[in-house]
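PROTEIN DESIGN WORKSHEET
SECTION A - STRUCTURE
LENGTH: 798
TOKENS:
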């Protein structure tokens, strides 16, 4: 919520400094985001009258004009230059006349700023232009819809002792004409009450400077007087309004009803289709506005508007929020409606808007038309004085607490020695109403009375205590330590949590550095690493280039490696344990451990540097799977890795034909080119959610074999298309109770072998457990290995 100091003072009579005001805002819970002093950089510039020729290249410079002058030594913010005395074509130049761009006030550089003839000579330009008015930006919590207005902020400051709140009693303007559209509500759940007023004979034109300056100061673009009036009251009173051009409406009735699939071209130039859950404002031609969110282009007010109809409505906050989210529309009106508005303010808001329109545009007002009725908002809340210290931890006297509530607009209904009952003001919809309890008839009257007193008003009482505490100052609430515990229980981790911690520790031990990257990225970058469905597109991204949930953590690690390479660090080893997002995953995401190595391996006097490859990534993946308790002997690697890997230098790790645990390999060359990564890059990803929970087994001492293992080598001639993994799995399954390990130690392809063939040499470890094997038993086991490999792969023993 932004507002200027001068705007605040239209509601708050105060002589407090900006620092006092901003400190108080934070102290009472309206946290300061920042203060912008637009005039600080322009303080040295003065209004000058040109009486002689000056050295100036601007085409509009001339004798007799008034302009903005910068003396030597002044810093020019638009060009980032400190002005010096110079000489141009033999003529000394002691200063310069400034354009808007040179002053940092826009992009116009076609000429110097021309000021009116009555501009006071020698006066600082920032004072003349009203640029010495600080802009205050505060963070408003979602429950404080009343502080999404300048008047609401002023009310809180006045209650905190910073000045006095000025009265707001707009003059009641009697109608001078008859007629105008009338309202009809067919969707009362979405709109219980709505007002409107027609004004004939208006002359729409640009707003006066003071109004334009107010809107510009808070980041709004002036459009025309009629529209600017509605935007002014949205910020000033927190009361969104809308204006229809009556001559563009069809019929004389505006109906609030459910949407029926119609398409509306909105004021932002975009088309929206309203559905059954949307509240639409319709004339005889169809939908003309999405209630509480945005108006329609077809009935908008422009310079041709002669009759305007002012809308002031009370819309259901939840329905407005859902409609805005569904259509991805963020507007000032929606922000305020979805937080809840002051229902009692509506008649005064119509009168205030009418008065300003008549002042700026002229015209004759009609009667105020209405549909529905003002909802019952009146409610009471009770606070026990003992609870201020008991719940809030701060010792505040009863009379001081009551005075705090009264300054905020809570009227005292009943004041006792131990409690106070107050009427909640209409603008404080965040203060809950008392809860009616349905007590069991078996309770005695005395017990029922005590329960009702203790429980019926717990929530509103807490709200009142919060108000008292924050006006005293949130920084004045003393810190209270938690009670000491005799013993702190040990942490209990689930198997998944244990795997996650082990994965981090293992990858760090592998020499990779942990990263914590965003889970979202630019759609174009995400497309390099997988599908980018609309279901994984962010509707409200924190930045335009962070609009897509990442399909894999490898993607954001690659972007991190790209940033490192751009800063002269091409050799990286990074990992992250975090989510990857896929529409086919449970809840749309899965927990993964991913790693990426780029550039060269470390060099030393014993090992030469080389580019990282797929086997480096596989080693990292195998290390983390071992730590996570994955039985490696049951795995198989298939060549169908995701498309961002290099074909032929990558693989997918499976536990059975259906369960995919992860993937590894070198990154595809097109990915490297797209990211500007030179050299090699290899990555892996392990789906931690896909790892099966370990079976509970009775703990026992490890069974160490008493007999030495036997190692035998086998070399098989196979087709070049046969994967080494198929040979290893077949050999491992030949004698499961006897074979303790199988590994590949040689691959040969050359002219000594038949065309289309290769040699795979494996080592098989036989581990006897009951007795030493005889030569015949060893020979039989070896033959079983050869037979199993031959059957599975068609291999022939060399």
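SECTION B - SEQUENCE
RESIDUE ASSIGNMENT:
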């Amino acid at each position: 919520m932004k507002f200027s100091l001068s705007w605040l003072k239209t509601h708050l009579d105060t002589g407090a400094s900006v620092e006092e005001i901003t400190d108080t805002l934070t102290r009472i819970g309206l946290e300061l985001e920042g203060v912008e002093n637009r005039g600080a950089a322009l303080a040295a510039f003065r209004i000058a009258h040109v009486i002689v020729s000056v050295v100036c290249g601007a085409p509009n410079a001339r004798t007799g004009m008034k302009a903005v002058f910068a003396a030597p030594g002044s810093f020019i913010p638009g060009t980032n230059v400190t002005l010096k005395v110079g000489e141009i074509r033999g003529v000394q130049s002691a200063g310069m006349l400034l354009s808007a761009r040179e002053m940092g006030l826009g992009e116009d550089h076609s000429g110097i700023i021309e000021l009116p003839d009555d501009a006071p000579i020698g006066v600082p330009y920032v004072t003349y232009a009203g640029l010495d008015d600080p802009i205050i930006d505060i963070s408003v919590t979602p429950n404080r819809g009343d502080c999404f207005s300048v008047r609401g902020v002023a009310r809180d400051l006045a209650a905190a002792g910073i000045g006095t709140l000025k009265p707001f009693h707009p003059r009641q303007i009697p109608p001078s004409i008859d007629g105008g559209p009338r309202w009809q509500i067919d969707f009362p759940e979405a709109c219980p009450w709505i007002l409107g007023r027609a004004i004939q004979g208006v002359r729409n034109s640009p707003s006066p400077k003071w109004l334009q300056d107010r809107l510009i100061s808070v980041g709004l673009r002036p459009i025309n007087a009629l529209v600017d009036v509605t935007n002014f009251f949205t910020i000033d009173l927190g009361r969104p309004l809308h204006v229809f051009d009556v001559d563009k409406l069809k019929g004389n009735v505006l109906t609030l009803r459910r949407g029926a699939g119609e398409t509306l071209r909105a004021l932002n130039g975009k088309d929206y289709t309203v559905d059954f859950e949307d509240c639409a404002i319709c004339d005889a031609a169809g939908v003309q506005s999405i209630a509480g969110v945005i108006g329609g282009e077809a009935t908008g007010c422009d310079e041709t508007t002669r009759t305007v109809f002012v809308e002031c409505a009370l819309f259901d906050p939840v329905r407005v929020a859902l409609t805005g989210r569904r259509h991805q529309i963020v507007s000032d009106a929606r922000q305020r409606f979805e937080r809840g508005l002051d229902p009692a303010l509506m008649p005064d808001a119509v009168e205030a808007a009418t008065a300003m329109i008549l002042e700026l545009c002229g015209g004759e007002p009609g009667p105020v038309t209405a549909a529905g009725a003002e909802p019952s908002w009146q409610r009471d809340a009770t606070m026990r004085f003992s609870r201020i210290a008991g719940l809030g931890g701060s010792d505040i006297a009863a009379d001081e607490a009551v005075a705090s509530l009264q300054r905020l607009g809570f009227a005292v209904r009943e004041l006792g020695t131990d409690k106070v009952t107050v009427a909640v003001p209409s603008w404080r919809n965040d203060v809950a109403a008392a809860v009616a309890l349905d007590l069991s008839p078996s309770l005695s009257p005395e017990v029922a009375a005590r329960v009702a007193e203790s429980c019926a008003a717990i929530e509103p009482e807490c709200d009142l205590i919060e108000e008292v505490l924050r006006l005293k100052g949130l920084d004045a609430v003393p810190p209270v330590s938690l009670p000491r515990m005799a013993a702190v229980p040990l942490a209990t981790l689930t198997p998944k949590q244990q795997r996650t911690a082990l994965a981090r520790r293992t990858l760090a031990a592998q020499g990779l550095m942990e990263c914590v990257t965003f889970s979202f990225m630019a759609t174009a970058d995400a497309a390099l690493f997988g599908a980018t469905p609309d279901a994984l597109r962010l509707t409200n991204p924190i930045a335009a280039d962070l609009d897509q949930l990442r399909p894999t953590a490898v993607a954001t690690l690659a972007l991190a490696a790209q940033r490192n390479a751009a800063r002269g660090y091409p050799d990286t080893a990074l990992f992250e344990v975090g989510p990857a997002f896929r529409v086919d995953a449970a809840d749309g995401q899965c927990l993964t451990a991913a790693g990426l190595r780029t550039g060269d391996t470390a060099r030393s006097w014993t090992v030469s540097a080389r580019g990282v490859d797929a086997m480096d990534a596989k080693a990292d993946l195998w290390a983390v799977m071992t730590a996570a308790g994955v039985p490696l002997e049951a795995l198989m690697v298939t060549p169908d890795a995701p498309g961002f890997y290099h074909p032929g230098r990558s693989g997918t790790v499976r536990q059975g034909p259906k369960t995919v645990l992860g993937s590894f390999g070198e990154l595809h060359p097109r990915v490297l080119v797209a990211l500007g990564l030179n050299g090699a890059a290899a990555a892996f990803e392990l789906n931690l959610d896909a790892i099966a929970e370990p079976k509970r087994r009775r703990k026992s001492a490890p069974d160490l074999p008493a007999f030495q293992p036997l190692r035998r080598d086998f070399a098989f001639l196979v087709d070049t298309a046969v994967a080494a993994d198929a040979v290893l799995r077949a050999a491992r399954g030949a004698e499961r109770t006897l074979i303790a390990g199988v590994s590949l130690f040689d691959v040969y392809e050359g002219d000594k072998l038949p065309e289309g063939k290769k040699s795979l040499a494996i080592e098989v470890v036989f581990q006897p457990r009951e007795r030493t094997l005889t030569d015949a038993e060893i020979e039989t086991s070896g033959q079983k290995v050869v037979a199993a490999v031959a059957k599975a792969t068609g291999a022939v023993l060399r």
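SECTION C - NOTES
The CA atoms of residues 197 and 433 lie 33 Å apart.
The longest helix spans residues 775-793.
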